[in-house]
């Protein structure tokens, strides 16, 4: 997690192996997740605790998660912060007859911890089709 590519590798690893410990290390204490609720017509946000509960539920209730990171659409970085917009494909296999495919983009804000020199995600705006 000392590099931005390392954050994406750990993110993919945490999904592949359904590892909430690794996933939790990626998120800052002040983390915010936001997605668009198209049925209701507004954005929904939650913090780190709800994100961990939601991800734990996904990990527990799926048989397999295949996350593929694709093109980086936007990348800005300075010594302590970064913003990355990147496309992805996620295949969630709940069981052989229930497979969900999600395609989209993540819009991540990251901050580098000055003491550990590790990057953490502070904000995730989901730009997926789900």
Quick overview:
The protein has about 130 residues and is of the alpha+beta class.
Can you tell me the overall shape?
A: globular
The CATH topology of the domain at 4-61 and 77-85 and 107-128 turns out to be Nuclear Transport Factor 2, Chain: A
Q: If strands are numbered along the chain, what order do they take across the biggest sheet?
A: 2-1-6-5-4-3
| Rg over alpha carbons | 15 Å
Strands, total number: 6
Going by helix content, strand content and strand pairing, the class is: alpha+beta
* Strand residue percentage: over 45%
Please give the share of residues in helix. 25-40%
Set out the fold topology.
Elements: H1 4-16, H2 20-26, E1 27-37, E2 42-47, H3 48-61, E3 64-77, E4 81-95, E5 98-112, E6 119-128
Parallel strand pairs: 1-6
Antiparallel strand pairs: 1-2, 3-4, 4-5, 5-6
Helix pairs in contact: 1-2
In words, what does this structure look like?
The protein is 26% helix and 55% strand. β5 and β6 form a beta hairpin. The relative contact order is 0.21. It has a domain at 4-61 and 77-85 and 107-128: Nuclear Transport Factor 2, Chain: A. With 130 residues, it is α+β, with helices and mostly antiparallel strands. The protein has three helices and six strands.
Task: Describe the structure using short key phrases.
26% helix; Nuclear Transport Factor 2, Chain: A
């Amino acid at each position: 997690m000392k590099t931005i590519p390392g954050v994406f590798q750990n993110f993919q690893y945490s999904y592949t192996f359904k590892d909430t410990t690794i996933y939790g290390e990626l998120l800052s204490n002040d983390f915010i997740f936001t997605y668009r609720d198209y049925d209701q017509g507004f954005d929904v946000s939650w913090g780190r605790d709800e994100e961990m509960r939601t991800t734990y539920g996904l990990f527990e209730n799926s048989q397999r998660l295949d996350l593929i990171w694709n093109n980086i659409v936007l990348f800005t970085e300075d010594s302590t912060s970064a913003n990355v917009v990147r496309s992805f494909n996620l295949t969630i296999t709940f069981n052989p007859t229930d497979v969900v495919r999600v395609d989209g983009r993540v819009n991540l804000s990251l901050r580098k911890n000055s003491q550990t020199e590790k990057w953490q995600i502070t904000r995730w705006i989901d730009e997926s089709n789900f």
